[in-house]
UniProtKB/TrEMBL annotation:
Identification of the protein by name: Phosphohexomutase
Organism: Flavobacterium gillisiae
Gene3D superfamilies documented for this protein: Jelly Rolls
Entry-linked SUPFAM superfamilies: RmlC-like cupins
Domain Mannose-6-phosphate isomerase cupin: 246-320
Lineage, broadest ranks: Bacteria, Pseudomonadati, Bacteroidota, Flavobacteriia, Flavobacteriales
Length: 322
């Protein structure tokens, strides 16, 4: 790459949603003007929604452009070998003013067969939760397709789904096939495979401003659902100034860093790293330059950045592929 490597930030891709609100502005300082902004796509190569660099020499270039020019330097040698020039993850912040639809995502095999896409394994970090806020994750007990269809037809699906009260700092890991919904009153950091394949099962009989209901994908979902009870809640340590493991799966590794001082970071060059600042503020010193971040910021550390220094007082999610 002709231009130098440095920490990359991107213009947020803001999405209006029927269930969205204004917390992405009030809580995370995103530049929204709508009262129904539900999502800020922080880092994406989904077709039609490719992130554009917002800082430094590469400002204005898309993520796909810089990967194409320097795949090993941006993605990392092992990530490039495994995924080619496709950026394999998608990073979002979500504001649920109302309940999201109940939905499910297909696994890699089914998504490849039907949509030529990755599946959608994901995790949620709860950044802010109103009192009594909850999520839906999987079934209360092991179920089956027949019971599921019967409950759906009788408008009684919620009776067999597991509803969980949540608080700030909770983490949930959702493998493909897990029926789920983010509930009202939550701001969530979401990490997932690069995929926009969602099968909407139930939408609480909502209508949009034009009086239309949203499309459901009941038949498509049948084969995608895991009908067994699953444990999605993840416990993790919070030891200061180090990486505390939260999720380690084939698609991504996520750690929690409670930063209160200065730490030196050394990388191997095998994978990019992404930091999501979920509280506080921090800075990165690299190549005699300082880069500053605050709550709601997301930064991509190219794999070629093999040594840098982080300092500040912040809670940070650290994500890479191992």
């Amino acid at each position: 790459m002709s231009k130098k490597i440095y920490p990359l930030q991107f213009d947020p891709i803001l999405k209006e949603r029927i269930w969205g609100g204004e917390k992405l502005k009030t809580v995370l300082n995103k530049p929204i003007s709508s009262k129904i902004t539900g999502e800020s796509w922080e880092l994406s190569t989904v077709e039609g929604d490719v992130s554009v660099i917002a800082n430094g020499e590469l400002k204005g270039k898309s993520l796909t452009e810089v990967i194409d020019e320097a795949p090993n330097e941006i993605l990392g040698t092992e990530v490039y070998e495994r995924f080619g020039k496709q950026f394999p993850l998608l990073f979002k912040y979500l504001d649920a003013r109302e309940d999201l639809s109940i939905q499910v995502h297909p696994n890699d095999a089914l998504a490849k067969k039907r949509h030529n896409s990755f599946g959608k394994t994901e995790m949620w970090y709860i950044m802010q939760a109103d009192p009594e806020a909850r999520i839906i994750v999987g079934f209360k007990e092991d179920s089956n397709a027949n019971e599921y269809v019967e409950k759906l037809k009788s408008n009684d699906l919620l009776s067999i789904l597991d509803s969980v009260n949540v608080k700030e700092g909770d983490v949930f890991f959702l493998e493909t096939g897990t029926v789920h919904a983010i509930g009202a009153g939550l701001v969530v950091a979401e990490i997932q495979q690069t995929s926009d394949i969602t099968y909407r099962i139930y939408d609480f009989d909502r209508i949009d401003a034009q009086g239309n209901t949203r499309e459901l994908h009941v038949d498509l979902a049948l084969e995608a659902i895991n009908y067994e009870k699953v444990d999605t809640h993840k416990e993790y340590l919070e030891e200061e100034n180090q990486s505390n493991s939260i999720v380690n799966c084939p698609y991504f590794t996520t750690n929690f860093i409670p930063l209160s001082d200065t730490i030196n970071i050394s990388k191997t060059g095998n994978s990019f790293t992404v930091y999501m600042c979920i509280d506080g503020a921090f800075e990165i010193e690299y190549d005699m330059n300082m880069y500053q971040y605050q709550k709601g910021d997301t930064v991509l550390i190219p794999a070629a950045m093999d040594y840098y220094v982080m300092s500040g007082k912040a809670s940070i999610l650290e994500i890479y592929i191992s």
